[in-house]
Amino acid sequence: MSELGSALLVALALLLVLEGVLPFLAPQVWRETFLKLTTLPDHQLRFIGLTAMIAGLLLLYWVH
User: Fold this and answer.
1) Torsion sign (Cα): 25, 19, 59, 13
2) Which residues contact 9 (CB under 8 A, 6 or more apart)?
3) Could you identify which of 30, 40, 45, 57 might form a hypothetical disulfide with 23, taking C-beta atoms 3.0 to 4.6 angstroms apart as the criterion?
4) Is the model's pLDDT at 1 over the cut of 80?
5) For residue 27, what are the CA distances in angstroms to 22, 23, 31, 52?
6) pLDDT tens, 12-22?
7) At 35, is the pLDDT very low, low, confident or very high (cuts 50, 70, 90)?
8) CA–CA separation, 32 vs 44, rounded Å?
9) What does the angle CA 56 – CA 58 – CA 63 come to, to the nearest 5 degrees?
10) Residues with Cβ within 8 Å of residue 48, at least 6 apart in sequence
């Protein structure tokens, strides 16, 4: 497997680990947060998604 493929699999694995921490440690908090997110309008969800992507890109730029 190429270096890029390996890096993508590592990134995916880390994403899954991080995504699983909150439901594992505090399932009730995670459930309440998720339910609140489902009531947000589309434009707010898009802004949250855009902010997360920009933060990820800035972190990648900073690390490399």
Assistant:
1) positive
2) 1
3) 30
4) no
5) 7, 4, 6, 22
6) 999 999 999 99
7) very high
8) 18
9) 95
10) 40
62 touches 55 (CB < 8 A): no
Q: How far apart are alpha carbons 7 and 24 in whole angstroms?
A: 26
Residue type, 22: L
Count the alpha carbons within 13 Å of 23 in the hemisphere toward its beta carbon: 7
Q: Which amino acid is at 10?
A: V
Q: Please give, one letter per residue, the 3-state secondary structure of the chain.
A: CCHHHHHHHHHHHHHHHHHHHHHHHCHHHHHHHHHHHHCCCHHHHHHHHHHHHHHHHHHHHHHC
Kindly state the average pLDDT of the residues 44-49. 96
The encoded tokens of residue 54 equal 């920009």
